[in-house]
């Protein structure tokens, strides 16, 4: 029986509606959620992502402001923009669009964001708090995967989850969330240095592919009945398309359909969840600000 194809867009719409309700309630308390976006350079993909985020914020009744810095901007100018937004009480969240142009340190830039405004969940304080199970913002894409697993009723507790990929944006936080108290999966993290990758993936009840390599996971590497979450978004040449390319994941989708119990498509699976979870984090930051203000009154 073919796998159930998970509609990430439908799940994301529920979350966006929830975030919009939160924004409406917060506005009534005088705290309208606002995200500041910092974009350096004119990378077409980054411009597209920023536009999509700002559109989603507006649709949810949230505000956005941005600082668009030209290619070749100094690191000091990026840090100055962050400091300005850190000190702006009307801004609840700060997002630096990655990747940054060559010559700028992502580590130093991200670390400069105030933890209470780190809605991407990337700064060292946020990562440390999450590691110790303390309240913090969690990265949006892994959070979206956890929402998908909840939505489809996947049994995470006691499951063997295998994460392929070790980036600080997806792979590492994904492994941490799956293994955290309350989720309680047993987690194996694989990467480019893993020997005999299939030996590990074939043990996975939940397989998360986030390596950024098209077709890395083939059907014969999937345990029958596994839940397969494909985070990869890769462009491959396709002369039949007007764009000259098509988007594919890290998993051989057609082959995996015959092995998995559930699978996310690319596009339309995990992708829509990332922005939805960003809206949730911005609303959370605004709610925490409102509660802090009300507590002082």
Description:
With 297 residues, this protein is an alpha/beta fold. It is 40% helix and 16% strand. The protein is built from 10 helices and 11 strands. The protein has a 6-stranded parallel sheet with strand order 1-11-8-7-5-6. It has a 3-stranded parallel sheet with strand order 3-2-4, with helices on both faces. Helix 2 links the parallel strand 2 and strand 3. Helix 1 runs parallel beside helix 10, helix 6 packs across helix 7 and helix 6 crosses helix 10. The longest helix is centred in the C-terminal third of the chain and has 26 residues. The radius of gyration is 20 Å and the shape is globular. The mean pLDDT is 95.
Structural class: alpha/beta
Question: On the 0-100 scale, what is the average pLDDT?
Answer: 95
Helix content estimate: 40-55%
The overall strand count is 11
Q: In percent terms, what proportion of residues is strand?
A: 15-25%
pLDDT < 50 stretches: none
Number of helical segments with 4 or more residues? 10
- How many whole angstroms does the radius of gyration measure? 20 Å
Shape annotation: globular
Order of helices and strands: EHEHEHEHHHEHEHEEEEHEH
For the largest beta-sheet, the strand count, sense and barrel status come to: 6 strands, parallel
Strand order of the largest sheet: 1-11-8-7-5-6
Distance between the termini: 60 Å
TL;DR?
This protein is an alpha/beta fold and 297 residues long. The protein is built from ten helices and eleven strands.
